[in-house]
Amino acid sequence: MIKLLKNRKFQIALSVIALLFIILLSVDRFSKVNIIRNIVTAPVVFVQKGVKAAGDWFGGIISGIRGYKDVIDLNNELKDENLDLRQKVTSLTQLEEENQRLRTALGLKDKFSEYDVIGANIVGSNPGNFYYNFRIDAGSLDGVVIDAPVVAGDNVLVGRVYSVDLTSAVIIPMIDEKSGISVWNTKSEGGQGIVKGDIELKEQGKCLMDTISEEFRLQVGDVIETSGIGSVYPRGILVGVVEKINREESLIERNAIIEPLVNFNEIREVYILVEKDRGD
């Protein structure tokens, strides 16, 4: 018997028979061999699932990090594009403002063909008597001269040049008491008057009109402009609106309160009208 067990062929045959027996038992899912197989393979499957879940988790983290980096990169690109667009908008706005200034200057040149038009920026203000004088960034090197009329872009009177140096000048507004302007009614019904600064009214940003001729049919709400009489202001610059007319019943003389059309608190740019042939 012992010799038989040691026989090589017998051992092979016995192994084949045992293998066939195990296969037959595996067909039955409820067999003992199948149970043993489940006991052996279940931990392996559990470990495999755990490893797979961990891999998926780490993969999700890595994907999230990559996605976050992509979002950061996209955000930076959008910031750069936004900055570029804002710079372009700023450039376009500056070009439009420059074009508007050029159109304004050309319009003033057409209206006042006997004058050179010099554009300037208001760069400061100097306190005067109860009001302010304005300093501009244009001076004698630019052609600015004393007593030249100064207007805003919509052809409304600001005042006149009071003093000049090489690169800047000082403007006194029309409401300053040193100012005096010959005016008439835009309705062209005749008559003149003088608009001048008043020490009390200028604190309200207004001025006084007096020396009103009898034929001047003045009414509240009338718009008055420069008459061109005198040596400073050409005809046709808008001055202001009649706010109130004062007249005593026993007196012939009248005066009126004028609300300037220019807003002294908002002007940033002005235009100086310099007569071309002044004979200097």
Topology (SSEs and partners):
Blueprint: H1 2-6, H2 8-27, H3 32-111, E1 115-127, E2 132-136, E3 149-151, E4 157-164, E5 169-173, E6 180-185, E7 193-196, E8 207-210, E9 223-226, E10 238-246, E11 255-260, E12 269-275
Antiparallel strand pairs: 1-2, 1-12, 2-5, 3-4, 3-12, 4-5, 6-7, 6-9, 7-8, 8-11, 9-10, 10-11
Fold and architecture overview:
With 280 residues, this protein is α+β, with helices and mostly antiparallel strands. The protein has three helices and twelve strands. The chain has helices at residues 2-6, 8-27, 32-111; strands at 115-127, 132-136, 149-151, 157-164, 169-173, 180-185, 193-196, 207-210, 223-226, 238-246, 255-260, 269-275. The strands form two sheets. The chain has a six-stranded antiparallel barrel with strand order 1-2-5-4-3-12. Strands 6-7-8-11-10-9 form a six-stranded antiparallel barrel. β4 and β5 (169-173) form a beta hairpin. It starts with a helix and ends in a 5-residue tail after the last strand.
